[in-house]
Amino acid sequence: MKKLYKMLGLVEQKVKEFEKSEKESFRNVFDEEGNLTTLGKRKYREFCGVYIIYEGRNIIYIGKSGGGAYRIADLAYQKNDKFKHTLSQKIIKFKSFRNINEVMNFYREKCFLKVIKTGSDMDAEIVESIFIKLFRPKYNKELKPNLEKFINE
To answer: Tell me: the pLDDT tens digits for 27-76?
Structure first.
């Protein structure tokens, strides 16, 4: 039970951090070519945590990262005409965009980012799962947190 209370305390703390944090415009994160800006690299390098992506005021995606800027940079990474990041794949499909430039323009013009740092990848996984359950972003699959996995470790 001690681990369960610790997990609940973590979630409560991260919800409070989420409520207090400011949204960052993707214009500050990506340049017009889809590369991370200096600010984006500095601010999001090597963080472990959860990132929340908004389209305007609506949360559209929640993900976790153990490598910070690299996971966020994956939003713009394309190889052999396929995006590395699941969100970009879904956006190009559901919004009928034709190429990376249209996707990057969408991110830069309409999207915002929040980052909630955690102390470990396991903490990030817990927070990500619970936030997806709470906010139900349209581009996330429903995650069923396996709490036994966390409690028994």
So the answer is: 888 888 777 788 887 777 677 889 999 999 999 999 888 765 567 767 76
pLDDT in tens, 73-104: 677 666 656 666 778 778 877 877 877 788 88
Say if 147 falls within a structural domain: no
44 found inside a domain: yes
Query: For residues 26 and 21, what is the distance between their CA atoms, to the nearest angstrom?
Result: 15
**Predicted TM-score (pTM) of this structure:** 0.82
Give Cα separations from 50 to 98, 113, 115 (angstroms).
28, 10, 6
Does 8 reside within a domain?
no
Residue numbers of the domain that contains 64: 22-139
Total domain count, the chain: 1
The answer to whether residue 144 sits within a structural domain is: no
DSSP-derived 3-state class of residue 117: strand
